[in-house]
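Example 3.2
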Amino acid sequence: MQAVDKNRPGAEWIAHLRQRYPCETELDRVLTRKLERRAGPPFEKVTLDTLQSGTEALIRSQIGGDFTLSKARWLSGGASKLQMAFVLDWDQPGVGRTSTPMVLRMEPSEAITETSRLREFQVIKAMEGVVPVPPTFWMDPYGDYLPYPAIVYGFAQGVAKPTAGAGGPSGVSTFIRPEIRPVLGKQFVDLLAATHTFDWRNADLSAYDVPELGTQSVEWNLNHWERVWEEDANEDVPLMRLAMSWLRRNMPPVDHLSLVHGDYRVGNFLFTEPDYRITAVLDWELAYFGDRHEDLAWAAKSPFGHLAEDGKTFLVGGLMTLAEFGERYEQASGLSVNHKTLQYYDILNSYKCMAITLATGIRAPSNGKTHQDVLVGWLAGISYPLLEDLRTQLEKVL
């Protein structure tokens, strides 16, 4: 690690990181903004009145003043963003006068994943009609109207885990009962396949850089996550350097450029009960153009699944075996699953987990930059078991 005060990074060090780890233009902007503002004040408690007035100002800038915002309340959930639910009485285009339940999703001063509201808004708009997503209305990508950048969504119906089941924060250890696994499992795979085969070329995704086929997207991705690690880690971890060295030496070429969700797993979709119909795929903030295998490997991570009733068989997302997951995906997408490439992205995803939990997940709350100190601190607590997973993964390939 360089001898630098990461809590007060200077312009020279920021410029060094940008040059050493070139990544997508918009990602570079948000990561640079994070560092430039880091020495500033910690996250300040935001009141509902502040959020309501800022949201009203944002909406007024888009549709004028003929609306009423009411029933503002805090919405639980969201490890990385603040959320306020409200009702908007307005003249909705194509609908007429209506009362629409909505959600404001706003960043804290520093999130456990630093991402772009502009990219999030564009990708959800692009996916409308492709997979179920929350209706998305307006954005404040640079924090012009609200304390921090934000998006206004329509309220999506459903639950993130069965009401009669168990599960920890952020989708970890969610238990899916045997009788509902086939219903949810088929949808889970079909929607991922639809995402990866979506023809994105005519969509407005101007905040995304489009890589060439080959290893360019892989290199951009590695640069992104190594930069996050270098920006936020409190200590040097030799295993992380070994992992990144291996990842750079073994980059698999991308044979089909897909829109990758980046956080596709149980806990990041809503479904209704008792029909168990998936109503919305959530949390698109990490989406990018790359290799489908990253989503496949992420969905199959052990914290997002559990063992079957035999106590031995691991179920991806608590829904199906890894073999069934791969077979159903190939049938639904028409794309192949390369198990060596899957192994590569499993290791990359472990590196990403460490950057999120052991680096940003410690620095952001310790500097008072987030509203979710307790939850983010809990996620930091699972970093060392994840580091052991990374060690055993590397043992198999070195």
